[in-house]
Amino acid sequence: MSSPATGRLFGRGSWTEASRIASVLRKETVGGVLLLVGTVLALVWANSPWAEAYESLRDTEVGPSSLHLDLPLGTWAADGLLAVFFFVAGLELKREFVAGDLRDAGRAALPVAAAVGGMAVPALLYVLVNLRDGGALGGWAIPTATDIAFALAVLAVISTHLPSALRTFLLTLAVVDDLLAITIIAVFYTSSLALTPLLLALLPLALFGLLVQKRIRSWWLLIPLAVLTWVLVHESGVHATVAGVLLAFTVPVIRSQAAGGPEAGPGMAEHFEHRFRPISAGVAVPVFAFFAAGVTVGGLSGLTDSLTDPVAVGIVVGLVAGKAVGITLATWLVARFTRARLAEDLSWWDVVGLALLGGIGFTVSLLIGELAFGQGSERDEHVKVGVLVGTLTAALLATVVLRARNRIYKRIALEETTDVDSDGIPDAWDPVDDRVPEGTRGSSDTPSGGPTRPFADS
């Protein structure tokens, strides 16, 4: 992404950041495919003659009752596994603000504004649809989420060559979206608050932070502290996934000189992200989707009945129209007030396509639906139908728009992969300030023929 100060929106960032983002997105794409598999399996099973077996599995309680942790498997997936998902999201968010594009106010303005617009407009449309039903207004936040894994799976399926700047924008928007979502969950979906366990949670949290600041990686120390923090947050009444974000925010991004200097190895945030992202994308999110997406539709008539509920209608309108309008409008306002122009070869259709892709709100939308109406309730079932229909509609519309632009994307992708001088950096990035300086190739600080890595220790 380009800073508005440079007069360009969606310009290429640094090669270091672009290559890192590409690596992250490859892992999320695999996770998105597994997410789709888990969702389809849940829907097929829940609408088969063996639907009772699915419900029995989802509602099976496990865990120690003495600690109030005798929870159904579905709840363990929502409260426990999604804490891992939000831990990874928290690491990515902190890295973006400390060492990524979000550390620069000009670059941060666009994705932050787009995330806010992409949450405010869907929420507003949902409220307008459900104004006459006070009991339905509790679900106002359901259509505000963007599921990056699902969105990337759609991009993989339609085989579009989305430029690196647009992919970076999509990931950054989703990361900011996750932060806003967890804030909404903590503030608006905490029905009762027990201060004692919440204050006690600060003790293992602080000790966890102290250990990671000292670069102690011993799993037998860190994991028990993380689990204890999660248990205490769960007992406080705050949704337990908040613990994942709090733990992530204690992890240092850039290694200090006192800790051994930049040459001593990667930072703790990078280390944890490398370890836990595959678990989050490959296990936590697909398993949650399997337990959360299994709604018994009841044929065409049942689908029709669900979609006549204003809750489902508000979700579909919010995810499809709300996200498209909110993200596009926020991007236009940034361009208008900074007098920035879109990068060369890009048009506002690309922004609309990304905005529609942002309407793929699956994982967090299902989670908020359960919190708003209660897991297994009739309205929760309608929420699932609304989320599924809204997500699929947004995905189909995004496919139409982005595929229509794919010829241009292919040309940009070719430019971004061509390396005529074989210096390890594609020629499209050569003119920018992260070109390897003459005389440094092959030195101990820079791999031969490779790019500099200013945040290799973060």
Corresponding CATH superfamily: Na+/H+ antiporter like domain
What's the total count of β strands?
4
Tell me the number of structural domains: 1
What's the architecture, going by CATH? Up-down Bundle
Strand order of the largest sheet: 1-4
- N- to C-terminal separation? 21 Å
Description:
The chain has 458 residues and is mainly alpha-helical. The chain has one domain: Na+/H+ antiporter like fold (Up-down Bundle). Helices cover 65% and strands 2% of the residues. Strands 1-4 form a two-stranded parallel ribbon. A hairpin with an 8-residue loop joins β2 (61-62) and β3 (71-72). The two termini are 21 Å apart.
SSE inventory with pairings:
Layout: E1 8-9, H1 15-46, H2 51-58, E2 61-62, E3 71-72, H3 73-99, H4 105-129, H5 148-158, H6 164-188, H7 195-213, H8 219-236, H9 241-249, H10 268-292, H11 299-307, H12 310-338, E4 341-342, H13 348-357, H14 363-373, H15 378-404, H16 406-417
Parallel strand pairs: 1-4
Antiparallel strand pairs: 2-3
What's the short version?
This protein has about 450 residues and is mainly α. The chain has 16 helices and four strands. A hairpin with an 8-residue loop joins strand 2 (about 60) and strand 3.
Features:
disordered C terminus, 458 residues, 2% strand, two-stranded antiparallel ribbon, Na+/H+ antiporter like fold, two-stranded parallel ribbon, disordered N terminus, mainly alpha, 16 helices
